[in-house]
Each structure stands twice: as C-alpha cells, then as structure tokens.
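Have a close read of this protein, sequence plus structure tokens, and explain what the tokens say about the fold. Thanks in advance:
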Amino acid sequence: MSGELHDFGRAELLDVEAIGQPGHRRFRLFCRGREGTASLWLEREQMEALSLAIDQLLAQISGQPVLRLEAQTNLPKPPGAPSDFPEQPDIAFQVAQLTLGYDEDHDTIVLLAAPLVLIERDGELVAPEEIEPQFAVRMSRQRAARLSSHITGALAGGRPRCPLCGQPSDPGHVCVKQNGFHPVELN
C-alpha cells in the first residue's frame, strides 16, 4: 500500500464487526466507496474511543446531548460484512490513528485513518512520531450514529467488563479500584 491518501468519498457501506471468540477477537471497520473496498483493523480501545468521539461530535454539531448508557446488556450484534464484501479488499491495514471531523459545507462527518507503521531506529522497531492518514471517508450524521451504535453492540458481545475498572471480568479478576479486595457486607 502506498503512502497516498485514499479518499473514499461518501460511504456506500460503512460498518463494524468483531471476528473471533471473546478474549481473542479482532475488530474491523469495513467500507465501500468510490475507491473500492477497505478493511481497517482496530483494537478494542480504539473502537470504544471512536464510538465516544462520534457521539461527542454529534452532540456538538446538534447542540443536543447524545445519551450513552454505561451498562448495556442484550444489545443486538451488528450484521457484519455483507456476503459480497471481498475477502481481500482494495485497502487493508492495522489502524494507528483515527481522526474525526465535521464538514459544515456538506454536513458530513469525516473519518481519517493512518496505518500502523514501524520503522527501525537504533536497532528497535518504533512508530514514527508523525504519520499521515491514508484513508478518508465521509458519512451522514445518521450513518455516524448507526456506526456508533453498531460499535457498542460489537463490543458488548465480548467478555463482561468490571463496572469499576473497565477491565475484563474474567474468573479471578482482581479490581485495582478496590485495591484487590472486595467489600464485606455486615448483617
């Protein structure tokens, strides 16, 4: 993949999916636009941050609060990629950085993504300090809100999270916010 910006224009298809079993899942943002198809691979934390950033931007644009539930159960799983989405898209990379913005002239949300690139410096592999986006897509406010909702649904299908520290509540979880101890109830 070259270092040029691939501008997909207004998305024909833009959604997310979680692939694999909880604890071993990968997250993908998939897109179809005027440049073809793209698969952008994200970490769970990046997905959470993207959903929150979308909701914050939508609230800022509309001047109205966007309500986010902290504890959500039984959320519908997003549909995933359609059957005609190619196994080998035109563009595919692990995302290092996402940027979200608003284009007032066209009333669209703009998403930019830069790939994870490692360079060798002093015998170690490191990420460069500045990276340029190589993917751009525009979406309507409605599509952005649906994307945020689908991200929340994809994330909810994983391991349950501790309500205090946010870490996976696997058996034997010791919450750092409780200093490793559980409160004792007095009768």
In short: DSSP finds two helices and nine strands in the chain. Residues 105 and 138 are 12 Å apart (CA to CA). The chain has a mean pLDDT of 85.
